[in-house]
Amino acid sequence: MATLILAIDFGTTTTVVCGDIQGVGNPIFLKDENSSLIPSLIFIKNDGTRYYGKRAEVEQERNTNRGLPVENFKMGLLSDNCEKYKEYVKDFLKNHIYKLYEQQKTDFPQHSEVIIRISHPSKWPKELIQFMVEAVKFAGFTGNVETVAEPLAISTYSLLSHQEDLKNKHLLDYNTEYNVMICDMGGGTTDVVLCKIIINDNGRCKVYDPKTYPEQKSKSTCGGSEMDMILRDYVLEKLPPNLHKTFGLHNARRWKEQYVSKDLEADKVSETPSRIMSIMSVIPEYIDRDDLSDICSIDRKRFENISSAYWFEFVQLVSNAVSDYCTLYDVKQDDVDFLILTGGHSQWYCISDILLNKLPFTTIKKDSTRILKCPNPNETVARGLCSYDKEIVCNHYFNGQITYEAHFSVTDHSVTKNNRRFILLDKKVVLPFSLKLPKESILKTNHSLRHKVIGLNVDVYIDSSATPVKSDTNSYFVESDGSGEYKIQYDFNIFIDEKSDIRISVDWITPSWSESPEEIGYGHTIDMI
Q: Which residue range is the domain that position 166 belongs to?
């Protein structure tokens, strides 16, 4: 029976868990109140009661001053107080993620064994990666536990998602090294990962020389939470002080994710948050106003004004990362081949333009196909964990030489064979490949061959082989007096499929000095398979 890959992407603000039969590529997601995005959140009420995920969000809003929200505990694993955050991670995995799995595991296809794959930032030390393995086992999950670095999961899913476009433009080859920049824009931080990738003969992505920015102790984060603060402050500036407590960071985050980013992507105005409009509609001083939807609305111009400092810091982060990596690994900045944008915070309409306008990514600027935007940015890592076993199909090439020999035979005459090979194809071509080549061969003689039969033999060779791989012969009866030069014309039809299987046929053209082939029975076309 099949093997189920259970992917766990434990993120700073959201956790995503999905399962898929190994190599299929159709994952099923665990749901927390009908959402595949499980908030990485614990809310501890003053009486000690704990809530997790979506329920924690609700309780946090209901009990603002009567409990403690525990969030960003993935970032806490790298802090000086990491032991405390390790306990939160174990608690969250055991009492929420595993319980959701137990409730919904029958939704997955039938399987005989389970492999649990968990992601981790490439900059994590081995000790922390091993802690996550133990935390997953502690939570109750059984089966082999594998760890996959986030850049590998992201690269795999991104290339799989865009492989047809990349193939059509011949941008992705096997066994070729590419320089890749990944902007993983999560809720807590933006991680810029520069690395080299190669797709091997089996279609598996391999990542080399990964380096993550900013450095571990850096104050620069450029995460989604910072944008939440910018949007919250934008709204609060337009509200009277007595309403400030009604719109917190979690409200700003919902407004951003549900409306602002999508509206601005469509170049539309995003209206005042519905929560604010509902509250204002019952306050006497606002009851008769018909512009409630405009009071805190935001368009692209206003958004770019309030977030300019944020994007400046983001460009500095990326610029410094590229500069450092290129110096470290002797890579030119122009030679960054692909830009991958992922993470829930990567959906802003302006990111690609900001990066391409400010940074010298010449190769990427020439072809926007090299910008890989993940279709499900919040789910990219989890989907990459599940699809790691799928083959990435790249461009196939034929790089051999195809040649042919042509020699004559004549009834009752001897003809010297010159054994010279002529080139049909001598260049690297992308597969599948097809080509029609007109050719001709000439028999020269000092006397007439009237009423003789001229035969032309064609042998086709691949590379330096001494044995022809294809052969074809045709014969023509000489009806009229010749001039001492007999020209035979024919077309080679070459087709090479993606598996490098070669098919060649020859179309013969009846010469003017011959009767119609149909009349004398010599004319034919043979497919050489």
A: 152-382
CA–CA separation, 348 and 19 (whole Å):
29
9-34 pLDDT tens trace: 999 889 999 999 988 888 999 999 99
d(CA 444, CA 484): 6
User: Which of 179, 176, 192, 182 lies closest to 157, judged by CA?
Assistant: 182
> Is 0.90 topped by the overall pTM?
no
3-state helix, strand, coil in the chain (%, to 5): 35, 30, 35
Same domain for 253 and 295: yes
Residue 369 CB neighbours (<10 A): 15
pLDDT tens per residue, range 380-397: 999 999 998 888 988 877
498 in Cβ contact with 431 (< 8 Å)? yes
Q: Please name every residue paired with 514 in a beta bridge, in sequence order, or none if there are none.
A: 478
In this structure, the dihedral spanned by the alpha carbons of residues 171, 119, 41 and 31, taken in order and rounded to 10 degrees, is 70
Closest CA to 264 of 299, 290, 294: 299
Considering the domain boundaries, does residue 296 fall inside one?
Answer: yes
| DSSP symbol at 46 | T
Count of structural domains within the chain: 3
Segments in 149-283 forming alpha helices (H): 150-168, 224-237, 249-255, 261-265, 274-280
